[in-house]
Amino acid sequence: MRTFTRRAALALAATGALASMPTAHAQDWPTKPVRIVTPFPAGAGPEAVVRVLAEKLQKKWGQPVVVENKPGANGFIAIDAFKRGATDGTDLIQLDNVHLVAYPHLFKKLPYDPVKDFEQVAPLFRTYFFVGVGAGSKYKTVGDIVADAKARPGALNYGSWSVGNPVHLGSALLESMTNTEMQHVIYKETSMLYTGVANGELNFALGSLATAGPLQRSGKIKFIAVTAPKRHPAFPDVPTVAESGGPAGYEVTGWTTLAAPKGLPKAVADKIQKDIEAALAEPDIKERYATFGYETFPVTRDQFNAFIAAESAKYADVVKRSKASLD
What we know:
Blueprint: H1 2-28, E1 34-38, H2 45-61, E2 65-69, H3 76-83, E3 91-96, H4 97-106, E4 118-128, E5 130-134, H5 142-151, E6 157-160, H6 166-178, E7 183-186, H7 190-198, E8 205-207, H8 213-217, E9 221-226, E10 253-261, H9 266-280, H10 283-292, H11 301-322
Parallel strand pairs: 1-2, 1-3, 6-7
Antiparallel strand pairs: 3-10, 4-10, 5-8, 5-9
């Protein structure tokens, strides 16, 4: 009986030790440098944000946190580099919404699986867009645009910088929700895009504070609505799309997330998320976010995954209706 009791006690102790290992591992993590791969070029708004975050995490973790730029090829270069990296969480990747909710519907075949290859750790930011028209435009409200589009099918146009970005699909969503038909015009650069709005080449375009803000501040573009559920605090006189005569429930956001390899231990993922959220709550990051029109949206990973699934379903319908494709 004594032998049995002693063995049982040892077994229970071993089980307890094993159970505590993930937590202990998470407390010590990371024990080596961390790399964040980003598909954005140096100096871009999303990339600038992740560099500020990396500085905060480096101080918190006591290990170098290096941001590695891998722009080009729709982000596939960055994703390939990430997939070839470490699987213990020391290789992370910044992704935006096109990679997770648009490209799966625009490409027949992707070099990654948005669900099976990534463990979503924490959203980094989101930004809403403004409906911008030229300063001398006849359109005063979104209702004016919709009414004209219905009266002249195919005559109106809007712009973006590529197929499948949030500005393109957000505009296509407006078509879908109002049962109208407009033309999508692609510009090589965002500066050319919003100049096109200012000089009347385009009837309208969605734009963020970072992209369309400079021309709005110079008086060449005016914002007639914001694609958010409520008015932007910096622009209290600019109505929501619904308040401006557009469809109720119309929302368009751009957002980025930090992801780890699928299967990362929950304790490690929890630590990364907690440390990211703490860093993003610091005043200097909030101030930097404000310059780009970004905002944080701390949610649980389950909530964020549900949000991603809902966004994917929304844009699946938009892509199908618009017949957009990148193959």
